[in-house]
Structures are given as structure tokens and as C-alpha cells.
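Exercise: predict the fold of this chain.
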Amino acid sequence: MESHPLEKNIYLTFDDGPNEPYTSQVLDILSAKGAKATFFVCGKNIEQNPESIKKIVEAGHAIGAHSYSHNPWKVIAGNLFDETEYTRELIKKYTGVDTRIYRSPWGITMPWLNRKLKQNGYSVFHWNIMSFDWWQPSAEYIADHTLKRIFSDAIILLHDGDQTQNGSRNNTIKALPVILTELSAKNYKFKLLEAGQNCPTGSFTNIFIDILIGGVRFLKYWIVS
């Protein structure tokens, strides 16, 4: 996942969708800003919002599996292969896309699951930059935390959904135009993730560091504000 030395690329990703009205709002903002993104979707949410997943693909974005249930016990057990395959089948049913890209809930991919996924042709993607929009702090915090960590070829984690709970993503919607405008001003190009690319893999260390950094910045932001 290396770009030309003179290019600056960025990979926007959205997890836990489709989730209305937020998925459609994200798509509208991306369209207005001329940006592309990769959506990692949950099978259960596809069944609830089949038209939304069609809109993602019709708009030219990439799509990947993010499990079916987003179940924490299955994540810890590494018991997600069958439901990932089912989610892939749902994606193909509604969009015609036979995706082979995957992201684990919370970025935790147990070694045995990772091995089985790769044996079956999947590329496992996680992220370099967590926006922390999953807990819905202010839009200002989401944008500021994301933009302070930007570098070329980074994968940014955002959310249009809330696991399988249909939670609000209002602050993500407010932050997204700010993030896109700033990245465009810095001449970043928005790229799609594809099977076969090199990518950061998930681990407990990755999650811990993200949460530690985000927590410190959140406290600093809250104190200053």
C-alpha cells in the first residue's frame, strides 16, 4: 500500500453500517466533496437496510465484511469465519460484489481467524488512525483528533453505524466535511482499499495504544474546553 513519492493518499473507512439516516448522509457528503471510501458492513445491518448497501456500491465506494453480529464473545473466541462468509453472501446478493476484504469488530483478529481468512482469499484491514467517533464526542474533537495524526497512506477509522444498535452518528456527520475539506486542501487523494494490499493488522496492542492516546487527548480537550 505504497504510493508514488510525490503522491499523498488517504483511505477513509466507515464501520458498522449500513445505518440510516447516517449512511445516506455520509454518502451525500462524500459525493459533495468528491471523496471515496471503504465501508465495512455488518450482515445484520444489511438485512435491515438492503437499499443502503446498494447505494454504497452504486456511488463507487468499496465494501467489505465486518462480521454479521458484532458479537464481543465471538470476537474474543475468534469464531467469526462462518458469519463473515454469510455477510459476504449478503453483500453479493444485494450488490453483486463478491468482496474479499474484511475488518474485525474492534480490530481484534485472533491468529487462527486471521489464518483461516487469508487461506480463503481475504485481505484483513484495520487502521492507523482511529477518530474515536464511536463514543460520539464533539464533532470538533473527532475532526481535530483525526487531522492531527494524518500521514500519507493512512487508513482512517470512522463509523456510520453503532455495532448493530442503530445508534446516533450525528457528530460524525458534522465532523466529516471538516475532515474532507482539510485533507483536500493538503492535496490528499482519497483511495479505496482492495484485496491484496498490504495493511495494518489488528491486535490488542493496537487497540490499547489507540485508546490511550485518544483518552489523553479527550481529557486535554475537555479540560481546555
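Check your answer against the key: The chain has nine helices and eight strands.
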